[in-house]
Structures are given as structure tokens and as C-alpha cells.
Amino acid sequence: MPRIGGKGYRQRPLRRYGFFVAVAGLLALLLLQTSPRLSQGVEPVRTAASDQLFHVTRPSLIDRISGASAKERRILELEARVRELAQYKALALTMAERLEVYEDILNMQGEPGGAEVTARIMAETNGPFAEALLANAGATNGVQEGYFAENDRGLVGRVVQVGQRSSRILKITDFNSRVPVMGEASGLRAIMYGGRDGLGRLTDLPEQGDFLPNERILTSGEGGLFPRGVVVGHVRDAEGKEIRVDLEMLNGQLSYVRLKPIMSIPVPEAFPVETEVAELTDEDGS
Amino acid sequence: MNWLSSIADSMALRWEAARPRSRLLIGILIVALIGMVGLTPKSLFGVPLAWPYVGLIAAVGWGRSGIGFGPMVVLVMFGFAQDASQAPWGSHGLANLLTYGLSAMVHQMFDTERTPFLSFILPVVTLFSGITLVWFVASISSGHFVRVTPMLTAYFATLVVHMLISPLFDLGIRRSVPSGGGA
């Protein structure tokens, strides 16, 4: 028990006054904020304080522990990408329509459509001999030798053997595969084959010009083995005289592939062309 | 589990030996931690969680030791931090401070006749009055009676948390009043 007149006794009224002064001060502060002008004056302080507090505390501890914040961040990223891609989609559709009109005007021979087949991959051989896939679609499904296979990301390979109900696809990662390709931006042509490290290698490079770093590689359509413009991958780096290509198909799933026909170019007629008109002229002249 | 009990004993001894200022500092840290987490969105399996008014818990706890300048300043500062969300400046500080004063008053009044029942009921009453103050100020400032249910859930959350952590807000001093004095 403190003595009356001691330190505790002297300080007690001071504390009590302090308490009442603080309460009165806070009440006054509350009352002052009933004035709209004063209230607007302190709003920047609130904004600054809120920014600081919420910056420190976001994401919440619970969210951090449960991983919800990472998921939320990922969802936001993906939503942003979807919005961006939607713009590209709209642009692509517009461009496709315009391209169709231009091709009509020019009477251009486009890539032929054909019986496309989606097939499930039943087996995959990655042995030392050949990298091939076995798909569950064959001649009865309309698949023919020479069809090319695509997955959701890009070119997978080419049908090299067709059975009644199955077909074998030689992957572009195989050393023996040869894909005529071109750079999307540079337009340079090359031949791509599969390397041992799962990457593509560009050979038969042009003497002038270089592929651009990270440039997308597409099929060039030369030779008629593949249609033009199918995505193959993108330039990774140069290793000596070889350029390595990251293959897009490896980024997608390989459980299902789309087998598509290639453009078949008819063999040109022998020259000179004997036409019926020529024959008729000969007959009149005779 | 001997090492666990020895750690607990050691911590209890250290807490017993801690000075009021250290205890106040620990209380500040606890309030800051719980308050910071409380500022963030909280939900468990999609169900929003009620968050305790930990400032009121501190006010009730520190009020047991009587009126002091340190706790008063801290409670007002906590009030301003709570006001940063959207409340009028000073509203939470006022609630904290009045709860602190009420806690100091009732503990001084009943200090000599402390029973388990009183030990239970005094925080219940003081916390309820604190929450009611918050509700009252919110209703006045918004111009209508604000919803009672969220306040009640927050009140029960505050009570539960108070039961768990109230010993940490004991400053270990009793600023007792000379006979004939009130708080």
C-alpha cells in the first residue's frame, strides 16, 4: 500500500487527469471530423496509413501458410494472359478473314484441308534406334503415309508407316528426321534434325544472315513434306556451327496427336502440252 | 517431455521476474502481431473469420494495474492504427481508452473482494462495454445503427482470445488507491 502523500499518491491524480485529457482529446477529434472540410483534410493521412499498413500485411499470414496467396497471384497472372490472348485472338480472326479475301483476289492456292484424324498415342519408342510414336489410327481411319502429326503446341512428326488401325510417327526429335524449316522473322531457311539432347539442330544454314535469338522456327513447306507455317520451336542458342532449337511439342502433351494430310502437288505435265485446241487446229489446217 | 516442462517453467520464471516495462513491450508486440494479421482478409474454407479486438484485450489487461501513462499512449496509438481502415480518427482510441479506464476502475473497486466469479465476469463486462462503445461510435459516425451480428461475433472472438492471452497483459504492478479514493 503506498503511503498517503508518497510518490504513488502524487502521481495518481496526474494519471487520472491525463486519462481524462486523452479522452477529451479523442472526443474532440471525433467531433472535429463531423465537419466535411476537416474530414477531407485528414483523408490523405488515412490513405497513406492504409497504404502502409496493407502493404505490410498483404498477403495475409494464413494465405501465406496455406499457399493461397501464390495461387491467387498465379490466377491473376493467368487472367491477365487470357485477356492479352483474347486480344490476339480477335486480331488473328480479323487477319484470317482478310487473308482469305486476299487469297481469293489473288486466286492463290492455299493449304488444302483434308481428313484430319485425332489419334491417341499407344506407345512411344525412345530407344537408340528411332524416336517414334505409335498412334491408334490407321488406314481405316483415312490416315496415309506422309501425314504429319501435331499436338497442342506444335509439330510432332510425320507418319512413316501405316497399318490398318495404327500408324507409326517418326518424331522430329529423331536424328534421322529432316524438317525443312524457316525463321519466322528472318525468313532464313534451314533443315532441322533431332539432336541427342532432345533439342532440334539446324543444318544447311544459309551463308548470309543469321537466325535471330529466340526466333520462332516454322516449317517452310519446301519439298512438300510438311505444310508451311507449322510451329516447330524457337532458336535457343548456337553451338559451334549448329543452331539448337527448343521444340515446342515437348511443352505440350503427347497423349493425343492430330494427324493431318499434307499438300499433294500434282506432277507437272510434260512439255509441250497437247491440248484439244491444238489438235482441233491441226485438223482444220489439214 | 521433461525438457518441455522445464522450458515452460523457465519462461514462467522469467515472466515473473520481468519488469512492467518489459511486460508492456511484450503486450505491444502481441497486439501488433494479432492486429496486423487481423488487417488482412481472413477466411477458413471460405467462411469469414471474426477477428478479436485485441486492443480491448490489452486495455482490460493493462487496466488491472491501474491508470498509467505508458499504456494510455499505446492504446491511443493502437486506436489510430485500427482507425486507418475506415473508422473516424479517434474512435477506436476512445473505445480503448474508456475500456482501459473502466477496467482500472472496476478492478480497483473489487480488488479486495476478488472471487473466481468476479475474475470471470469483470473482463466479460468490460469487453462488452468496449465493443458497445465501438458499435456506438460506428453508429453515430455512419448515421445509422450498424449491424450487431458482426460486433457480437467479434466480441465472442475477443472473449475467447482474452481467456487465452490475458496473463500476458498483466503488468505485474498494482497501483492501489489509498482508502477513500476512487479511480
Topology:
The complex is a heterodimer of chains A (286) and B (183).
Chain A: H1 7-32, H2 36-57, H3 61-66, H4 68-106, E1 117-126, E2 131-135, E3 148-150, E4 155-162, E5 167-171, E6 179-183, E7 189-194, E8 200-203, E9 216-219, E10 231-239, E11 242-247, E12 256-260, H5 276-285
Antiparallel strand pairs in A: 1-2, 1-12, 2-5, 3-4, 3-12, 4-5, 6-7, 6-9, 7-8, 8-11, 9-10, 10-11
Chain B: H1 2-17, H2 20-38, E1 43-44, E2 47-48, H3 54-63, H4 69-83, H5 91-109, H6 116-142, H7 149-165
Antiparallel strand pairs in B: 1-2
Care to describe what's here?
The complex is a heterodimer of chains A (286) and B (183). Chain A has 286 residues and is α+β, with helices and mostly antiparallel strands. Chain A has helices spanning 7-32, 36-57, 61-66, 68-106, 276-285, and strands at residues 117-126, 131-135, 148-150, 155-162, 167-171, 179-183, 189-194, 200-203, 216-219, 231-239, 242-247, 256-260. Chain A starts with 6 loop residues before the first helix and ends with a helix. The model of chain A is unreliable at 1-6 (pLDDT under 50). The longest helix of chain B has 27 residues, at 116-142. Chain B is an all-alpha fold and 183 residues long. Chain B contains seven helices and two strands, in the order ααββααααα. The relative contact order of chain B is 0.17. Chain B has a two-stranded antiparallel sheet with strand order 1-2. In chain B, α2 runs antiparallel to α3, α3 (54-63) runs antiparallel to α4 and α3 packs across α6 (116-142). The interface between A and B is large, with 34 and 38 residues.
Would you list the SSEs of chain A in sequence order as H and E?
Answer: HHHHEEEEEEEEEEEEH
Q: Tell me, what's the shape of chain B?
A: globular
Spatial strand arrangement across the major sheet of chain B: 1-2
Most extensive protein-chain contact, per-chain counts: A-B, 34 and 38 residues
In angstroms, what is the radius of gyration of chain B?
17 Å
Count of β-strands of chain A:
12
Termini separation of chain B comes to 46 Å
Q: Which segments of chain B are poorly predicted (pLDDT under 50) over 5 or more consecutive residues?
A: 177-183
